[in-house]
Amino acid sequence: MLTYWARVARFALRGDRPVTVDEVPVWALCVPFRQWSRPKRYDGRSFADAYGASFGRVGRWLLPLRWFYLQFLLFWPFVAAVRALRPGRGRKFLRAALFRPELALAHPDGTDTDAEIAWSRPDYAIGMYYAFTWDKTRAPWFFVDDKRTFLKVCTAHGFAIPPTFSAADAIARGGRYIVKDPELDLGYGVEIKDATALAGIEWKDELIVQERLVNHPDLREVFGDEAPLSTLR
């Protein structure tokens, strides 16, 4: 616990950066406190916007949400210790909660082995690194996170992209399409919709509408016609 609190003091209060790999998870939890009101994405949103969205602007002004977040960081070892008392948890859960807190928070009932915990994908830490780097550098490559910008860059450089339509053209043509929310990632906001369903979406003009691609005939012989689109990235 002392190691955990020392890291919170270094990363949240002093603004230090991690020195070793095992410090990264706790550093990642401290990034929102350090950058609370500063943009964490190219669209201008901050951690204050993300964590305080349900309180409204006045509520966020009245409530010291940033300091509540710091209280969460400081009290997390006590919460983890209480959770570790539940049957089947014990010291292993407490150790994981202090050294990989993002995993214990997201999967409190998980039964992962120590090796699985050590090698789990650090998605949260990567997300916080992106937020930290954007705040420090405003690097232009962040803007291709927006799928609309990504398509423009691909087109400008002559890369092949799926046939893309405006919502009005897709509705007029009929049929089924891949419809994407341009600001989401990790597969979120990607759906298959027919023209009728697309017409009923109020913000349809903000969506990306593309032709639904299918696998190569050789792949369909192996995986079947209903298999997901096979891609190589």
What would your notes on this structure say?
- This protein has 233 residues and is of the alpha+beta class.
- It is 52% helix and 7% strand.
- It has helices spanning 2-13, 24-34, 47-51, 56-62, 65-84, 91-99, 101-106, 114-119, 123-137, 147-156, 167-173, 195-199, 217-223; strands spanning 164-165, 176-180, 190-194, 208-211.
- The protein has a 4-stranded antiparallel β-sheet with strand order 1-4-2-3.
- Helix 2 (24-34) packs across helix 9 (123-137).
- The longest helix has 20 residues, at 65-84.
- The protein starts with a helix and ends in a 10-residue tail after the last helix.
- The relative contact order is 0.09.
- The mean pLDDT is 89.
Compile the SSE list and pairings.
Blueprint: H1 2-13, H2 24-34, H3 47-51, H4 56-62, H5 65-84, H6 91-99, H7 101-106, H8 114-119, H9 123-137, H10 147-156, E1 164-165, H11 167-173, E2 176-180, E3 190-194, H12 195-199, E4 208-211, H13 217-223
Antiparallel strand pairs: 1-4, 2-3, 2-4
Helix pairs in contact: 1-2, 1-5, 2-5, 2-9, 5-6
Q: What structural class should be given to the helix and strand makeup?
A: alpha+beta
Main sheet specs: 4 strands, antiparallel
Order of helices and strands: HHHHHHHHHHEHEEHEH
User: Uncertain runs with pLDDT below 50, 5 residues or more?
Assistant: none
| Overall average residue pLDDT | 89
Rg to the nearest angstrom? 22 Å
Instruction: Give the beta-strand count.
Output: 4
Strand content: 5-15%
* Residues in helix, %: 40-55%
Distance between the termini: 41 Å
Q: Helix tally? A: 13
Give me the side-by-side strand order of the main sheet. Answer: 1-4-2-3
Q: What shape does the CA trace take?
A: globular
